[in-house]
Amino acid sequence: MDVTGPARAGVxxxxxxxxxxxxAGGFGSPGIRLRRxxxxxxxxxxxxxxxxxxxxxxxxxxRAAAAEMAGLGADVAIVGRDHERTQVAATQIAAxxxxxxxxxxxxxxxxTDARRVADEIAGDFEALxxxxxxxxxxxxxxxxxxxxxxxTYASQVLSQHVLTSRLLPLLSKGTDPRVIIVSSGGxxxxxxxxxxxxxxxxxxxxxxxxxxAKRVQVALNxxxxxxxxxxxxxxxxxxxxxxxxxxxxxxxxxxxxxTRPILRTPQEGADTIxxxxxxxxxxxxxxxFWSDRMPRGTVRVPGTGSDSAxxxxxxxxxxxxxxxxxxxx
Length: 329
Description:
Largest sheet: 8 strands, mixed
Number of helices: 12
Number of strands: 8
Mean pLDDT: 95
Helix content: 40-55%
Low-confidence stretches: none
Strand order of the largest sheet: 3-2-1-4-5-6-7-8
Distance between the termini: 59 Å
């Protein structure tokens, strides 16, 4: 029997729901490949002339996203910590796409570097259309930054807040501008508790610190949208599923060994990032959390829902720690 129209759409939604429940099926390569077929995904949209800044683009998902966007016509700038690796990535992406790629160097463990690179970007661009926060590693060892913060939290929360705040005026001048946060499905395992998002040395667990930071990113994405209603800049977060990247190879070797047959390619992990950067308009409200081009819920595990006051408390804490209060500007 040929299933068409509403019936086919209903079947597609049912399959998508089963993939989500299965976790491995939804987060792994079977999920994105099946969804591409059942939802008849269109080609990624052209991005001619769109000005994009993406952090953490020297390898893995970030590199794949940067290359894809440049190939689609975007003017791409990448931000990385290591000077040589960042310059090599920019040169190779440019050679592969025929488009110049700017390279900026910043250690996003440190807020002073985030402020400096934001000022450099603001001096080089007249306007910005897309800011993508992709930088962030899972570290097995506790590290305290020179500014006194746990490094995972500093790089994936504080510096992101600094960059977004400082580049907001530039984004406001862009065309259909948006900020995209690359989170992780690992955030589903942690509740939002502002008092414990920054782990101490004696209690440090790299996997949990990473998951907590990713939970914070999603909560702050919603706070940006809530606190800046009607703002020209839209705020969206997503998770890329399980992809076979150098970060996974280095940080989660046992996980990779078990899941390797179903891990996504970096390009598959980057698909929703690039789609969110290019599709106009984004077919959901600012503050939405996405995976595989679909809005998703932010709570899946019992006990990981947050107190209703937690997001506001988190926002106040991050603003105080960074000195950036964009909702009061």
